[in-house]
Specification:
Elements (H helix, E strand, L loop, with lengths): L45 E4 L1 H4 L19 E2 L2 E2 L24 E5 L5 E13 L10 E2 L2 E2 L1 E8 L5 E2 L3 E2 L6 H13 L7 H15 L3 E7 L9 E12 L3 H4 L9 E8 L10 H11 L4
Parallel strand pairs: 1-4, 5-12
Antiparallel strand pairs: 2-3, 5-8, 5-10, 6-7, 8-9, 8-13, 11-12
Helix pairs in contact: 2-3
This protein binds 5-O-phosphono-beta-D-ribofuranose.
């Protein structure tokens, strides 16, 4: 099977896989029934919020204002609703992870108490023979490939998603994250960036929703968790993306087209999203 061109800022980097909390606390043992409605008297997780979050950057909640947050609603400009429906609040006033206990309390590396909303653009095309341009098959089914990035934090391959910033829409975030992480738009001139955004506008307006909900992200804690909206943008004849060479940017260490095969190992719940895209396109 032919390899597609890919570029990377960090090809020389020696990749290792790292846990997201290498120097942080160990996760406490999670009882068999991690559900909040089941009492767990011995459950006593560490409370940990990373110093970078406690510094109160614009993307994080200020812990001092905790009592004023309106959970399960749109709180001013911040959407604190979960795709899973209303979540419980602890007697201390902290949101409780709808998936249950995680072994770690506090926010860890996440900025918001409760749901932290992200968007994941799954950009796909058919894998083609580099010479004949014929679509390649595996056991009679066409092979899809998607644009994946290597995360700088854990070293995992992932979909180039990112957080929905306050005031931004999901659709704007999908395009922005792809352009920043997979096309290195932040390093382009204003003119180039504008041309790129315009050229991709139609492509990014034809997305198909793949998944909306809780993500099994390694940063999740008892009081803060990731939720995402993943969309598929498919370049059926490969002509749209051919005009844009991949180049890693922002918090992506590398970028490439990856064959969407069933045995992939990806960050968080991303493999599940890719499986759904494969089914959608009746791919191998
Ligand atoms: C995952 O974290 C989401 O699916 C999304 O891909 C990503 C967003 O976080 P950052 O990449 O901005 O750290 O749970």
């Amino acid at each position: 099977m032919g390899c597609s061109p890919s570029t990377s800022r960090h090809l020389e980097r020696k990749w290792t896989f790292r846990p997201v909390y290498p120097n942080g606390p160990n996760r406490a043992h999670v009882p068999h029934t991690k559900n909040w409605s089941t009492k767990a008297p011995d459950y006593s997780p560490c409370v940990y919020t990373a110093p970078s979050v406690l510094k109160c950057p614009s993307w994080a909640d200020n812990e001092a204002d905790l009592k004023t947050f309106k959970f399960n609603t749109i709180d001013g400009k911040i959407d604190r609703r979960s795709f899973s429906g209303p979540y419980q609040i602890s007697p201390e006033g902290l949101p409780l992870n709808p998936a249950g206990r995680t072994g770690l309390a506090g926010r860890g590396l996440l900025g918001r108490f409760g749901p932290n909303h992200a968007a994941d653009p799954i950009v796909t095309r058919w894998r083609r023979d580099p010479v004949t341009h014929e679509v390649l098959h595996h056991f009679g089914r066409p092979v899809l490939e998607f644009v994946g990035i290597r995360r700088l934090d854990t070293g995992d391959w992932a979909i180039p998603g990112g957080m929905v910033e306050t005031g931004d829409t999901v659709s704007a975030t999908l395009r922005k994250e792809f352009c920043e992480e997979a096309l290195n738009m932040n390093e382009k001139s204003e003119e180039e960036a504008r041309a790129m955004t315009q050229a991709l506008q139609a492509f990014f307006s034809r997305g198909v929703e793949i998944c909306k909900g809780y993500v099994d992200d390694p940063r999740n804690t008892d009081n803060a968790w990731m939720e995402t909206v993943a969309y598929n943008f498919h370049d059926d004849d490969g002509t749209v993306l051919d005009c844009f060479p991949l180049q890693a940017g922002d918090d992506a260490g590398a970028v490439r087209w990856i064959a969407a095969m069933p045995d992939l190992q990806l960050y968080a719940s991303h493999r599940l999203f890719i499986d759904r895209v494969r089914q959608l396109h009746h791919a191998a």
